[in-house]
């Protein structure tokens, strides 16, 4: 009897010391089950205090599954890292929202065409292709281009403004053929806008007067450099013909005067319909 409680006590000590999250938490070798496996043994192992999924202490894409005291070492697909948000979930994700700073090691990359690793977002090989990148899934790539004027941002895996991406050779001045005119400090703080000299639909906002960001008006509109606003192109003298060949006058009319949306069939208090010439089918109320 005394011997048995001593054994249990020894187990508890092992358990307690393994629960301390020190650097060597890494259960590198599948731990031997505690020798004395009497009725108390279910959750007693040297490093698996609970069932579930646990991150490796050093390698972000390695984790362990603990099940009935058994420990199984596992690896995320190449390019993904273990999401240690909940021990109940076995989840590997792309690394953007997972903090790997405390466990920075990763498996040896398995590259494929345009893919540094089997999974993930990767910059274009040509650093001058600021807005192009690849999305790789199981080693198969998809080439993606950011919306015009945006730069692929390695750190976040999304397209962002050139000044935010801070990518070498992909600054605002490289991406846009536009330089913010020098202005005084007071005016700079209003983030002045300027028409894109090459495209009526677009304009530049100069953040703090010096960092250009390209922005656009709705289809059918043009940036009016006098009012500094988007306006129907046909009302902006220098852009009146901008959509010729792309949109007909009828299409422009429709954009400028969108048809009133139809009322919902039920529960609508107002049943007024837009009056449009429609072969007398419509009876006026
Ligand atoms: C700054 O520039 C704006 C626009 O050019 C001008 O209207 C304003 O008077 C200037 N302000 C000062 C303090 O110089």
Automatic annotation (TrEMBL):
A Pfam entry, by short name: CBM_14
GO molecular function, one term: chitin binding
InterPro entries given in the database record: Chitin-bd_dom (IPR002557), Chitin-bd_dom_sf (IPR036508), Chitin_bind-dev_reg (IPR051940)
Chain positions covered by the region annotation Disordered: 22-44, 250-285
PROSITE patterns linked: CHIT_BIND_II
Signal sequence range: 1-18
Key words, A-Z: Chitin-binding, Disulfide bond, Glycoprotein, Repeat, Signal
Gene Ontology CC terms: extracellular region
Biased amino acid composition, Basic residues: 270-279
Record PANTHER family: BCDNA.GH02976 (PTHR23301:SF104), CHITIN BINDING PERITROPHIN-A (PTHR23301)
Name of this chain's protein: Control protein HCTL034
């Amino acid at each position: 009897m005394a011997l048995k409680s001593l054994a249990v006590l020894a187990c508890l000590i092992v358990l307690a010391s393994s629960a301390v999250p020190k650097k060597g938490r890494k259960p590198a070798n599948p731990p031997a089950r505690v020798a004395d496996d009497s009725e108390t043994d279910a959750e007693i192992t040297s490093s698996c205090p609970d069932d579930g999924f646990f991150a490796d202490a050093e390698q972000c894409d390695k984790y362990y599954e603990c099940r009935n005291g058994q420990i199984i070492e596992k690896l995320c697909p190449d390019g993904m890292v273990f999401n240690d948000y909940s021990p109940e979930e076995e989840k590997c994700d792309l690394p953007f929202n997972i903090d790997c700073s405390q466990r920075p090691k990763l498996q040896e990359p398995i590259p494929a065409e345009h893919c540094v690793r089997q999974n993930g977002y990767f910059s274009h090989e040509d650093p001058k292709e600021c807005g192009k990148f690849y999305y790789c899934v199981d080693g198969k790539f998809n080439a993606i281009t950011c919306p015009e004027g945006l730069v692929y941002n390695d750190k976040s895996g999304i397209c962002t403004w050139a000044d935010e991406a801070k990518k070498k050779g992909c600054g605002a001045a490289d991406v846009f053929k536009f330089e913010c005119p020098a202005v005084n400090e007071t005016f700079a703080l209003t983030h002045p806008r300027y028409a894109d000299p090459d495209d009526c639909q677009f304009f530049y906002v100069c953040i703090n007067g010096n960092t250009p960001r390209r922005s656009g008006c709705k289809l059918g509109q043009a940036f009016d450099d006098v009012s500094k606003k988007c306006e129907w192109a046909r009302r902006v003298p220098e852009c009146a013909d901008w959509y010729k060949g792309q949109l007909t006058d009828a299409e422009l009319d429709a954009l400028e005067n969108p048809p009133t949306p139809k009322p919902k069939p039920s529960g609508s208090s107002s049943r007024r319909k837009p009056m449009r010439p429609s072969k007398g089918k419509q009876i006026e109320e």
